[in-house]
Amino acid sequence: MTASLTPAGESRAPIVPIAAPRPVIPVRRAYSTPLQAVRRRQEALERLAARRIVPPMPQPEALRPVLVPEPAETRQYPAVPLTCREVEVLRTWLLVDSKSEAATDLNISVGTVNTHLARIRSKYAQAGRTARTKASLVARAIQDGLVVLDEL
After folding, report:
1. Which neighbouring-strand residues pair with 12?
2. Is residue 77, in this structure, part of any structural domain at all?
3. Does residue 40 sit within a domain?
4. What is the CATH number of the domain that holds 106?
5. Considering its fold, how many domains does the chain have in total?
6. Which of 70, 102, 120, 121 qualifies as a FRET site for 60, CA 20 to 30 Å off?
7. Residues 108-148: pLDDT tens digits?
8. Sign of the torsion angle spanned by Cα atoms 84, 85, 87, 92
9. Which SMART domains does its entry note (predicted)?
10. Strand 11-12 and strand 4-5: pairing?
11. Within 10 A of 138 (CB to CB), how many other CB atoms are there?
């Protein structure tokens, strides 16, 4: 051991740490029989199952009587007399990205597609169901059962 110097120049004996005694931790001995181990395990599981962390709060909906909502009225729209070709042009145009693609798929010109769409729009307007945009034509086609939403 070497002596250490303090700031004033005095020598001091080195400090040696002394190990503190370790605390005694009681160890549970093994169960005497496997049957006792099973019983204690079952009792512990039953205590855990009986314990509740937060008591359940009564829900306001659970206290009210359940009311079955009335079925929504199915709205009847006036029928629009579209020809088979108009339905074909409308469906094709709704399923592709542009009028030119619809024209190519149907082997007609873009002008013919525009003519069919103009007639379709005028027929819907006469029935009191205006459809000025593609989105409104989609809505009318779905309402009339010409197109299913999954197809789009």
Report:
1. 4
2. no
3. no
4. 1.10.10
5. 1
6. 70
7. 999 999 999 999 999 999 999 999 999 999 999 998 989 98
8. positive
9. HTH_LUXR
10. antiparallel
11. 17
- Tens of pLDDT, residues 57-100: 666 665 555 555 666 566 677 889 999 999 999 999 999 989 99
State both tokens at 12: 């001091």
> In the block, which residue shows the tokens 């006792």?
36
Whether residue 144 is contained in a domain is answered as: yes
Q: How big is the chain by its Cα radius of gyration, in Å? A: 42
Lookup: tokens for 40:
């204690």
CB 88 within 8 A of CB 117: no
Q: Is 23 helix (H, G, I), strand (E, B) or coil?
A: coil
Tokens representing residue 6 in the block: 């303090």
Q: Is residue 13 part of a domain?
A: no
Give the contacts of 88 (CB within 8 A, at least 6 positions apart).
106
Asked whether the whole model's pTM tops 0.90, one would answer: no
Instruction: Check: CB of residue 108 under 8 Å from CB of residue 100.
Output: no
- CB 121 within 8 Å of CB 89: no
